[in-house]
Specification:
The complex is a heterodimer of chains A (about 110) and B (about 210). Chain A has about 110 residues and is mainly alpha-helical. Chain A is about 75% helix and about 0% strand. Chain B is built from six helices and no strands. Chain B starts with a helix and ends in a 6-residue tail after the last helix. Classes of the chains: A mainly alpha (about 110), B mainly alpha (about 210).
Chain lengths: ~110, ~210
C-alpha cells in the first residue's frame, strides 16, 4: 500500500514536471510571436517548439514511452511518413504568390 | 474445473496472444483513431499553410493574445487533471477518478465557451466564412474550418468525459476506459499546440 502510494506520488511529480515544461514551451511560442524576425524564421521556431511539446505530450501524457518498442516505432514511422508526404506542395504554394491563390481575391 | 472452462481459458489466452503489440483492443483502436485524426488535422493545417503562403494579402486580425493564452493554459491544465484522473482510476480510487475526470470536462466546457466568445467577436467585426474586412476571404474559411474542427473534438471529448465518468462511477466501465479516453483528450490538447502558432500567433497584428 505504501509502495503504491509512493509510486503514485512520484508519477504525480513527473506529470506536474511535464505540465510545467509544456506551459513554458507554450509561453515561448507567444514570446517568439512578438520577436522582430521574418515570417519564415518565426514559423520554423514555432514549429520546433510545437514539435517538442507534441513529443513530450505523446511520450509522457499518452504513455507511448511505456508501450512496447514495436508499437512506438509503428506510430512514429507511419505518422512521420504520412506527414512528410503531405509537404510536397510547398513549392507550388510559393509559385502562387505571383498571382495569388485561387479565390484569394474573393473578399467583401 | 470443467472442460468448458478449460476451453474458454485456452481460447481467451489465444486471443490475448494474438492482440497486436499485446495491447487491449480498445486501446489499440483509440491509437489507430488518433493516428487517422492526426492525418485529418495535418491535412487541414497543411492546406491552410499552403493558402497562407500563397496569398499576399493574408489578414492579420488578432490584436491581443490574452484570450488564446488563457485557452491554452486551460487546455494544458485539463490534460494534467486528466492524468490525475487516470492515475486515480489505476490506483482504484473511484471517487478521485470521477472527480478529476469531471474537472477535466469542466475545463473543456470553459475552453469551448471562450472559443465561442472569440468566434462571436470575430463575427461582430464582420468576418464570415467567405469575407472579412481585412483581406482575402480565404482566411475566414480556413480559420473557422480548423478551429471549428478542433472545437468539435473538444465538445465530443467533453460529452465522452461526462458519459464515461458517470458509467465508471456506476461500475459499468473500468480504469482502462478512463485511460483510453485520456488518450483522446491529450490528443485534442496536442493538436491545439499546432493550431495556436499557425492560426493565431502567425496572424498577430504587430
Amino acid at each position: 500500500m505504501a509502495i503504491a502510494a509512493q509510486q503514485r506520488s512520484s508519477g504525480t511529480g513527473r506529470y506536474v514536471g511535464v505540465y510545467v515544461c509544456l506551459l513554458v514551451l507554450a509561453a515561448l511560442q507567444f514570446v517568439i510571436a512578438y520577436q522582430n524576425i521574418d515570417a519564415s524564421q518565426m514559423f520554423t521556431r514555432m514549429m520546433v517548439v510545437a514539435l517538442v511539446e507534441a513529443v513530450l505530450a505523446v511520450m509522457f501524457f499518452m504513455h507511448l514511452w511505456a508501450e512496447k518498442r514495436g508499437f512506438l516505432w509503428f506510430v512514429a514511422v507511419f505518422t512521420i511518413f504520412v506527414l512528410l508526404t503531405m509537404q510536397y506542395g510547398w513549392t507550388d504554394s510559393s509559385r502562387m504568390r505571383v498571382g495569388g491563390a485561387p479565390f484569394s481575391s474573393y473578399s467583401k | 474445473m470443467s472442460q468448458a472452462d478449460l476451453t474458454m481459458q485456452g481460447h481467451s489466452a489465444g486471443l490475448l496472444a494474438g492482440t497486436p503489440f499485446s495491447m487491449p483492443t480498445k486501446k489499440l483502436a483509440m491509437w489507430l483513431f488518433i493516428i487517422a485524426d492526426t492525418m485529418t488535422f495535418a491535412a487541414c493545417l497543411v492546406a491552410y499553410g499552403f493558402l497562407r503562403n500563397g496569398t499576399p494579402n493574408w489578414p492579420r486580425p488578432f490584436h491581443s493574445i490574452t484570450n488564446v493564452a488563457l485557452m491554452t493554459v486551460i487546455l494544458l491544465t485539463s490534460s494534467l487533471t486528466m492524468m490525475f484522473g487516470v492515475q486515480a482510476a489505476k490506483a482504484g480510487d473511484k471517487a478521485g477518478a470521477f472527480r478529476w475526470t469531471m474537472i477535466t470536462a469542466a475545463a473543456g466546457i470553459v475552453f469551448a465557451l471562450l472559443h465561442v466568445r472569440e468566434w462571436l467577436a470575430l463575427i461582430d467585426e464582420g468576418m464570415t466564412l467567405f469575407k472579412n474586412p481585412w483581406g482575402t476571404g480565404l482566411f475566414g474559411a480556413s480559420f473557422f474550418s480548423i478551429t471549428g474542427l478542433h472545437l468539435t473534438h473538444v465538445t465530443c471529448g467533453v460529452i465522452a468525459l461526462i458519459a464515461v465518468a458517470m458509467r465508471y462511477k456506476a461500475g459499468r466501465y473500468n480504469a482502462d476506459d478512463i485511460e483510453i479516453l485520456g488518450l483522446y483528450w491529450h490528443f485534442v490538447d496536442l493538436v491545439w499546440m499546432f493550431v495556436v502558432p499557425l492560426v493565431y500567433l502567425l496572424n498577430l497584428s504587430h
